Amino acid sequence: MSMTQHAEPAVTTPPAPGRKETDGRTSRRSPALRLLARPEVGVFLGAVAVFVFFLITAPPVRDGSSMANVLYQSSTIGIMALPVALLMIGGEFDLSAGVAVITSALTASMLSYQLTMNIWVGVVVALVVSLGIGALNGWMLVKTGLPSFLVTLGTFLILQGVNLAVTKLVTGNVATDDISNMDGFGQAKKIFASSFDVGGVQVKITVVWWLVFAAIATWVLLRTKYGNWIFAVGGNKESARAVGVPVTFTKISLFMLVGFGAWFVGMHQLFTFNTVQSGEGVGQELIYIAAAVIGGCLLTGGYGSAIGPVFGAFMFGMVQQGIVYAGWNPDWFKAFLGVMLLGAVLINLWVQRTATRR
């Protein structure tokens, strides 16, 4: 007689209502942590702190005209900080950005004045030259495989020497001639260096351009395929190339965007002062890079936003003007910026670690 054994079915205890079994791969972060993960959160808090600080210590800052000056200083930095930030997200940076601004202004000024052409001819040629410098930087980077530090350091030195030597050769001086009486000057000034009235306060047009460019850059980063390419090549260019991202095009075009920014700021300087000093621009590239870093962009690439550098540039403008309005020695400006840069980096590091902590 055969005997059979019947196994008792396993009894499992159902999870308590409202509880879900999760592991590290499926856990969801809280809204607060997701907010902290945004690269612009740290610099926003820093910008608010700096603004409140000078609002208390420098009473003139509370005046509308003073805030207009702060925004103007911020915009001249911020317009260049935006393409520099995009380039950094793409994994590169440009040490020639500061002198490239002066190269653009010198090209437009000398070409128009020396050849007695309409000023718009010089403006267009300067745009071509600026885009060409950016394209050259990108092309050398891609073709040689050298770090962008070395490539753009070489460009920086070349442009610095050319700016001084060519200006002396053409004008006999270290500055260009006054172009305020040339044809087309008034029209160009309205676009690049005019002001408009807001409640009795004169606001520079560069503030509007700064915010417009920031909105466009944010849309490109978050809503377009090109924005995905920027993050991809900055994170890992070989992996990006493997999935079909046009790495060469993306890198070169990002350097050309920096060239466009240099052209625009160069035109603003030219039509604001009517002349250009050929030795200027040295050191400005560090200000642009610092504004992007303070804004949450990593030097290693693949991380950042376009909004962060807006707040970073605002902090620079606020400090630069706030020190003056507070009556302090302006020699402390660079020291203050150094402290601000280190503080922003530490805050960004803390924000990232907090956001990724489970």
Explain this structure to me?
The protein is mostly helical. Helix content is 68%, strand content 2%. It is built from 14 helices and two strands; from the N terminus they run αααααααββααααααα. It has helices at residues 31-36, 41-57, 64-89, 97-114, 119-144, 148-171, 185-192, 205-223, 225-235, 237-242, 247-273, 284-294, 307-325, 333-356, and strands spanning 195-198, 201-204. Strands 1-2 form a two-stranded antiparallel sheet. β1 (195-198) and β2 form a beta hairpin. The longest helix has 27 residues, at 247-273. The radius of gyration is 26 Å and the shape is globular. Residues 1-12 and 18-27 have low confidence and may be disordered.
Amino-to-carboxy terminus distance: 61 Å
The count of helical stretches stands at 14
The total count of strands amounts to 2
Low-confidence parts, pLDDT < 50 over ≥5 residues? 1-12, 18-27
What is the succession of H and E elements?
HHHHHHHEEHHHHHHH
Main sheet strand line-up: 1-2
Q: Kindly report the oligomeric state of this protein.
A: single chain
Strand-pairing-aware structural class: mainly alpha
Task: Give the overall average pLDDT.
Answer: 86
User: Which percent bin holds the helix content?
Assistant: 55-70%
> Could you tell me the strand content as a percent range?
under 5%
Q: Shape, please?
A: globular
**CA-based gyration radius:** 26 Å
Strand count, sense and barrel status of the largest sheet are:
2 strands, antiparallel
